[in-house]
Each structure stands twice: as structure tokens, then as C-alpha cells.
Amino acid sequence: FFLGILQPFSDMLKLLFKEFFFLNYSNFILYMLVPFFSLLIIMFMFILLPFDNMNLVNDFSMVLLICCLMLNVYYVILMSWASNSKYTYLSSIRVVVQMISYEVSLFINLLCLFFLMEGMMVELFIKNQFYMWLLFLFFFMFLLFFFIFLSELNRIPFDFLEGESELVSGFNLEYGSMMFSLIFIFEYLMIILVSILMVVMFMKGELSSFMFYLKVITMIGLF
């Protein structure tokens, strides 16, 4: 019955403590710092969420969250450039093209929601959905945000960033050991954060309630 239970933990230890190879033609300092920089961004974004009715930046918290979300593109570009590999370079070009295509529609839809909420605070999205979720009023906008965030997270069918059949592994090709695991930790934390944003914007996401976490788990399953 217990056979195989410890296998994931042993795989994790193996990944974290594997030998790390240094690239001869890479920008070494940037190559090492970018994965940690990405984790700092995601930690800052979680701080902006008003857990227990506390928020560092009240007036523009939603704008700051979305702006930090957009930095995802720059970390991929920096990672690809620092690796100095043709496959990672092609991956960064794909990201830039994809970014131009969806971020314009993201900001236009966000402006519509800000006008509707009469502010740019995360708390306003929670308070103004006391009687009815925005999901029922603006279902097509919810679908649009869902596909935009799918593109932002590079999930199927918008996984042009990795493209295993064309780019081997894409932007993270030259990373291994602990650095590789940091990249994937960042990606899954981004999925959790975007799921929280979707719940807050469209499903009355009271961050201290039990139902909030059930909604977030449902959104994570969709992503």
C-alpha cells in the first residue's frame, strides 16, 4: 500500500541537488538572478491582496497587481537573453508577439471594470458584488478575461512559450537543478494568483471566507 508514496519526495530532492552546469557564453549574473527576481515579483503580488482587510496600497491595488502580472513577459525575455541560446531567443520573440496581441484587450476590459466599480481597489470588487456576482452580469467579459489569462500563463492552447516540438523546452532550456524548479514554482504560483484575481473580480471573493478557497480551487482546475 505504501509503495511509491515517497517517490515524489525523492524526485524533488534529486531535482534540487542535481549538479548545476555553468554556461560558457551566458550572462552569468543575470542568468542566476532572473529566477529569484521572478519569485520576488510573485511574493509582492500576494502582499497586495487584502487578506484580513489589510492592504499595503489601497487606492490602486488592482492596477498594481495587473502591472506586476505584465512583468511576467520581461522576466521571460531576460531569461532567454541571459541564456544566449537560439531556442530561448525564439521563445522570447514568441512571447513579445503574444503580449502585443492580448494586453491591449486586457487593459480595455479592465478600464470598463474600473468605471463600473468607480475605483481601482481590490476591496471595491468585493463590496460591489454583495447582491450579485459580476459573473452573471458580464459572463462574456469573464470568458474574455479567462482566455486572456490563459494566454498570460502560457497554458494550452497558448503554450507558444515552450513549444516542445519546435523549441525543445523553450525559455527554460538552459536551466537545471534548483533554478529549473524555481521557474516552475513561479509558474504555478502565477496560476494560483490569477485564479484569486478571477474570483475577486467576478465571484465576490471575500478572502477570509471558506467559500473563497473553494472558488479558487475550481478556477485552478480550469487553468
From TrEMBL:
This is NADH-ubiquinone oxidoreductase chain 1. Keywords: Membrane, Mitochondrion, Mitochondrion inner membrane, NAD, Transmembrane, Transmembrane helix, Transport, Ubiquinone. One of its GO terms (biological process) is aerobic respiration. It comes from the Eukaryota. Core subunit of the mitochondrial membrane respiratory chain NADH dehydrogenase (Complex I) that is believed to belong to the minimal assembly required for catalysis. Complex I functions in the transfer of electrons from NADH to the respiratory chain. The immediate electron acceptor for the enzyme is believed to be ubiquinone. Belongs to the complex I subunit 1 family. InterPro entries: NADH_UbQ_OxRdtase_su1/FPO, NADH_UbQ_OxRdtase_su1_CS. Its EC number is 7.1.1.2. The chain crosses the membrane at residues 28-51, 63-83, 95-118, 130-150, 178-203.
